């Protein structure tokens, strides 16, 4: 397999009917300092990570204005602009007041401001996928999404996505906007978002699982993840990604890292094919955690 085709082994998915991406992407949250705050310790390595991801066939990169804040978007532009077929997704709807502090703010003028600023930082006229980072219960959902729809109509947003929503919230949002993706926490051992995944699968909405590599005790030396990984000459984290990719055709994992070596390991998971029996073994073990 050539270097440029590694991520393609994960299969493809078409967002919104017009953006076809390789299903295994890259999450850019880790391109920042501790607590997702400030610049990274090794800025040059982070730039190498972004460029190497694209070399490996990754053409879907997920970020947010709140990562840094702003740091992640700025590094993406420096490393990859003008992007050349790489889909850049970003988000707004959270404030940053310090390390690991994430107040929700869905005030519609703020969402507009942050979209405008993300356009500048990324150096684009249109953001391919703009996601509402959280629904803010202090404002009407119709007003929050309505602002994104207005930006979409102005040509500043191509597609709209959501993050951390229930099935009911997804259905309510769909009455206001065409939703092409949902980003919820989901991994082998944390599957509370299963109903949302099933709703996305039924409608061919992209499902972007954040925190995709959590495996906990399953990754112990004598655990099922380690045993099956050994059969594939792979790591437990690679198996966790392979499980996600097999779980659903709408699944778009975005493992993140600030190290090139770790990135290469993650992307190599695209080529791992689990048998149905292996998938079921991992599924049962994960649900028992």
TrEMBL record:
UniProt GO molecular function: oxidoreductase activity
CDD domains: AKR_AKR13B1
Domain of life: Bacteria
Signal sequence region: none
UniProt GO cellular component terms: cytoplasm
Pfam family, one: Aldo_ket_red
Protein name: Oxidoreductase
């Amino acid at each position: 397999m050539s270097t440029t085709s590694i991520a393609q082994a994960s299969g493809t998915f078409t967002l919104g009917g017009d953006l076809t991406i390789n299903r295994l992407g890259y999450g850019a949250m880790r391109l920042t300092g501790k607590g997702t705050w400030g610049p990274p310790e090794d800025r040059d390595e982070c730039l190498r990570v972004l460029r190497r991801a694209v070399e490996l066939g990754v053409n879907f990169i997920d970020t947010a204005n709140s990562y840094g804040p702003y740091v992640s978007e700025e590094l993406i532009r420096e490393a990859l602009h003008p992007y050349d077929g790489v889909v850049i997704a970003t988000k707004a709807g959270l404030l940053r007041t310090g390390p690991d502090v994430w107040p929700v703010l869905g005030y519609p003028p703020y969402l507009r401001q942050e979209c405008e600023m993300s356009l500048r930082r990324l150096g684009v006229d249109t953001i391919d996928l703009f996601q509402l980072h959280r629904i803010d219960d202090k404002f009407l959902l119709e007003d929050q999404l309505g602002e994104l729809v207005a930006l979409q109509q102005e040509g500043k947003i191509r597609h709209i996505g959501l993050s951390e929503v229930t099935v009911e919230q997804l259905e309510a949002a769909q009455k206001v906007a065409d939703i092409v993706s949902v980003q919820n926490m989901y991994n082998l051992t944390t599957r509370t978002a299963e109903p949302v995944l099933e709703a996305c699968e039924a409608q061919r909405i992209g499902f972007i699982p954040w925190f995709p590599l959590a495996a906990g005790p399953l990754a112990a030396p004598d655990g099922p993840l380690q045993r099956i990984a050994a059969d594939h000459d792979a790591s437990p984290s690679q198996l966790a990604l392979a499980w996600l990719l097999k779980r659903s055709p709408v699944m778009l994992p975005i493992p993140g890292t600030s190290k090139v070596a770790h990135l290469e390991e993650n992307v190599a998971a695209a080529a791992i094919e689990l048998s149905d029996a292996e998938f079921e073994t991992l599924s049962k073990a994960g649900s028992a955690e």
